[in-house]
Each structure stands twice: as structure tokens, then as C-alpha cells.
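Listing S7. Sequence submitted for prediction.
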Amino acid sequence: MSTDTRPPGGTEENPARIEAHSIDVIPPSERHGQPRSLGAVWFVSNLNLTAMSTGVVIVSLGGTLFWNLIAIVVGCLVGTTFMALHCTQGPHLGLPQMIQSRAQFGYAGAAVTVFVAVYLNYLTYNTSDALLSSDAGATLTGLPLWAGYVIAAAIAAVIALFGYDMIHKVNRILVIPTSAVMVMLTIGVFKLDGISAALSPGSFSLPIFMTAFVITAGFQLGWAPYVSDYSRYLPASTSSRRMFWWTYVPSAASAVWVFAIGALAQAGTGADSPVAAFKAAGDALFPGAGPIIIVGLLVGLLAVMAINQYGGSLTLLSIADSVRPIRATRKARITAILVMAVMVWGIASLVGEDRFNLFYGNALIYLAYLFTPWTAINLVDYFVVRRGRYVVADLFKPSGGIYGRWGWRGNAVYLVTVAVMIPFMVTSQFVGFAAARLQNVDYSMLVGLVVGSALYVLVCRIGTVPVGPAEREPAGDAAAVGSHE
């Protein structure tokens, strides 16, 4: 790969310029922005139809609304912690999150384990987005379902094509209007009949509580594989503490808000679909408010679809680069965005709007299982084992450099941790033998975090773990890789 990293433009935000970088490192000459810019991205990213449907899925589990809401709060607070920790890696290395995973899993190893899992994550969430955007479009205009998706996907693809700066700007613009829509919906929800009575605590069910916890924590953890993609342009000197809190507070707050309102809307309306539930709750505020709210939530959905298309394209390029080194060009990124859009359309067509709740509910649980071991390994490697000391240039060498093509430690711990988690899993298709003996309570995520972290620390004591120089080499010099058009 070429090592030409001459900046294509200045160091200021320029949303009107199509981003030149993709999976390559961001050099110091192009770093810009402040940690507070992350607040808008991660606040708005949850104010949309898909995120709100998480609350609908939780209500479908059964149990009382009161305890479901407590599970939502606890799950969001826990899951967002890991997400925000991953965000702090972005300015330090100037890399997409997945490229950094090569240090734990190897140049080729990351492609066949982590990268594939992450791409499934993008496909799943964008498929959910596609189903809801189609349903919303049909509800508002009567358009055919396929037309609603095509229009939504096209708008999101344009935002994703312009890239990092455009995504940040769009989310800043949307903070006030999407918040206003959420305030309207919140008021409408509490005007629904029976909501006050439904909020009485009632009986506590630990199995349902823990499943709701896994779903909500897993949703927030689902941001972790690409959260640092949106902080990697910040200057390397940016405070990690500030980045953490500018990610944690906005994301956790908006997640609790939308999940809770989604649960309340479903409980108060009993509608057949998330879109119908939110429309009915909006109309409870005043006749005609429902369509306004759906439009606002749909706009928020377009913003998060852009994030998923952008991140998905980076992951697809990471997989391709692990098979055969590629040039990090605009053309490559455009191709990856289009490939992902077509794949999402195909999957959405197979799933269908009628099966959204089943598809989305299962996806949230299984994705939480997939990423629990990865987040444990990645964070322990970064904060405990190597303490942020990486040789970035070696992450782009087909040989793997000091990290090798197959990182046996990361891959072995990942597989063993998943195996240990399986007996504790609880899904609609399978209940592990340990969970069955524990009254069908899902402890798999907690087990995975503990086992994955401890096991990775243990295996890193075997042999010598390659660590970068004490003084981190500046991104854009020896560490720089990639090329631009």
C-alpha cells in the first residue's frame, strides 16, 4: 500500500468535501474538532424508529412495565460504559475501530472472526432500519415498501459518501428537531389510557429482567465496533476523559429516553407494529401529531442509516484489505456503500415488515453474545496489556508485522469465551443447560465479560506480547499508510 498521506485539504471541518480517507490512518495535519462534537452524534443516533423499537421488543418479553423500565436503565448504563471506552481509542491511533483489532486477532485472523461479526452487525441494524423506513414511508405516503427503502437508502448513502464531517454536521443540525419530536411523543405517551396503572411495580421476574438487560446493554454495546470511527479525526492530544463523558452521557441519556418511550407506547397502544404504536401515541397528544412524529423519527433514522452505511463500508473494505491489500480511495468506499445497500435490500425483502419484531429481537440478543468477548479482549488489550502502545504501520502489513497474520491469543480467547457463554444463554430457540438450572436467567453477558477479560490477561503472560514504543509514533509519519484519490 502507498504511504502517501499528504492532506487533501485543511484541518477544519468541511462537510461539503467528499471524505478522502477510508481505512487508512488520519495524519496529524488533518486532525480537527472538539470532544463535544461527539455529543450530537451519539445523542441523535438513538432518536429514531429502530432504537425506539427496542422498547417495543422488551415489552413483548412479558413482565411488568415498571421492571422493564428498570432493566432498560441498568442495561443502558452498563452497555454504554464499554462503548464510551472504545471511543477514546480513536484520536490515539487515528484508525477505524476494526483495523485496531488486528493487534489482538492478527491481520488475517481479524478478517475471519471480528470483521465478519461486525459486518453482520451492520447488515442486521441496517436491515432493521430498512424495514422501518419502508413501513414509515408506506404509512405516511402510501408508497410501496420497496420505494420507501430505496429513497431512504439513497439519502443515507449520500451522507455516508461525504463521510465523517458531513455525518457530524447532520447530527448537530438534528439535535433540536429530533429532541422536539421526542418531547411531543413523550407527552403523548403519558396521555394514553392506562399508562399510570401500568407503571405499578407488580411482580418481579428475574429471567425477563435479565433478558431485557441483555437486549438494552447489547444495543449500546453494538455501537462499540465503530464508535471510534467518529472520533479518529480528533487531535491525538484530545483528553480521553472528555471523550468518554461526551460519548457516555449523550448516548446513555438518549437510549434510556427512547427505549422507555418505545416501551410505554407499545404498552399503552398494543399496536401491531412499532410505527403504528408511535403514530397512535403521537395522535394521543393531538389529532395529526402522529404523522409529524413519524416524520421526525424517520429523519433521525436516515441519519443513523448513514452511520451504518459509512461504518459498514469501512468494515467491508477492512475485510477486502485483509485478503488483498487495497488502495484507500473514494472509489473503493463508494463501491462498498453500494454493495452494502444492495445486500440490505435483499435481506429486508426476505424478512418482511410482518416479522420485524421477531427478527429485531433475536438480532439484539445474538449480537450481544457476539460482541461481548470482543469488547473484553479489545479493551483489556488496549488499556491493560499494551496500554495504548501500538505500531500502527504493522497493522497494515500483510504479514501482520509484530502482530502476525493470526493472533492466536485473541482468537483462542474469543472462541473459548463464546463456548463458556453458551451454557448461560437464553433465547427463543435455545436455553443453555446452566441457564436452565438457574431458572432460565441469562447471565451470559456477565460471564463473557469476566471470562474474556481474565482469560486474555492470562494468555498474554504466555510468551512475549509485542508492544509499541513508549513514546507513541505520530500518526501520519512512520505510522501512516493508505492513499487518496
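Caption to Listing S7: primary sequence and predicted C-alpha cells for the chain studied. The CA atoms of residues 87 and 228 lie 4 Å apart. The chain has a mean pLDDT of 84.
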